[in-house]
Design goal:
- With about 280 residues, the chain is of the alpha+beta class.
- It folds into 2 domains: about 100 residues, Aminopeptidase (3-Layer(aba) Sandwich); about 150 residues, 3-Layer(aba) Sandwich (Aminopeptidase), CATH 3.40.630.
- It contains 8 helices and 14 strands.
- Strands 1, 2, 3, 4, 5, 6, 7, 8, 9, 10, 11, 12, 13 and 14 form a 14-stranded mixed sheet that branches.
- Strand 3 and strand 4 form a beta hairpin.
- Helix 1 packs across helix 2.
- The radius of gyration is 18 Å and the shape is globular.
- It binds coenzyme A (COA).
Amino acid sequence: MSAGIAIRTMKAADAPIMGSWAAAEGWTSETSDDFLAFLDHDPDGCLILEYGGEPAAVCVATVYGQAGFLGEMIVSRAYRGLGLGPILFDRALSYLRGRGCRSVSLDAVPKAAAFYETRGFKTVSLSRRFRGRIPPSRGAGVWPMGYGDLPKVSAIDLRAFGADRSFFLKRRLDQYPELAWVRLKEGRIVGYIFGRRREGFCWPGPIWSADAGRHAAFLLRGFAMGAGDVDIQVGVLDINTRAVALMRRLGFEEKREPSRRMALGEGDPVGLQPGLLAIGTAGKG
Ligand SMILES: CC(C)(COP(=O)(O)OP(=O)(O)OC[C@H]1O[C@@H](n2cnc3c(N)ncnc32)[C@H](O)[C@@H]1OP(=O)(O)O)[C@@H](O)C(=O)NCCC(=O)NCCS
C-alpha cells in the first residue's frame, strides 16, 4: 500500500463528515443517519480511507448472504484524481468476496460507470429517480404497518428481494412508522411500502406489490397521508416496466439523468424481481 494511506472501519463520530460529503454531491437521500444505519448493520463493511491521517474517502459494503451491495463511494473533493477511490473500492470488493458474496451490485452515477466497468461490472438496468406528488388517501385495504406485520413482510421481502434485509426494514419502521403501510386482501398482505423522510421530500422504498403491481398506487396514496405536504422521490429500476409506467401515469417527473444498476459475479444479483416496484436506497439496494 502507498505511503500515507490507511484503511480503517468507520466510527459513529465519522458519520456527520460522511453525510456532509454526500450532501456536497447533491445526494439528498443519503445523510449521516444512513451511515449510522450501515454501521449498526455491519461495522466491518463501512470503510474509510485516510490519507496523511485525514479521512479522504468512504465506501460501504453490505452483505446479504451470497449477494453483496456496494454504495456510498465518495472521495472527498480535495483528494480526487489521486487514485484513492479505486484503492478503497477494491478493498470493499475484497471484503464482500471474503464474506462469500457470489454477486455484487451497485447503483452507479453516470460519470462513475466507466470506472466500475474497469472492475468488470456490467449494467443490468438503468436506475431512475422520479419526483412528484400524489393525492393522499386512505382506505381500499391500506393500513398502517405494525410490528405484528413485520415477520410476514420480511418473509415476503426475502423472496422478492432475493436476500434478507429485515434489519433495514425494521429500522425504517422504527424511525418512520407513519411512512410504513400494508395493503390487505382477505387478511393477506398483498403489498407493502416503507419510507424515509429527508429535507423537503419523502423517499418511499422498498415498495412491493403482488398481482403485477396493482397495489402500488394505493400504497403510495397511504404513504402520502403519512408524508404530509412534501414531494415524493422514488428510485425505480428501468427493467421494471410496470413501475416506470406507473410513475409516469401518476405524473411523476424524472429528476435527473438515470444512474445504472450494475452487477458483477456468477450469482444472482438481488432486487431485480418485478414485484419490487421501488428500490430501498441506492446505497444498499
Ligand atoms: C468516482 C470517484 C470515487 C473516483 O475516485 P478518485 O480517487 O478520484 O479516482 P481516480 O482519481 O483514480 O479516478 C478513477 C476514475 O474516476 C472517474 N472520475 C474522476 N472524477 C470523477 C468525478 N468527479 N465524478 C465521477 N467520476 C469521476 C474517472 O472515470 C476516473 O478514471 P480516469 O482517471 O480513467 O479518467 C470520485 O471521483 C468521487 O468521489 N466522485 C463523486 C462521488 C461519486 O460520483 N461516486 C460514485 C458513485 S456511484
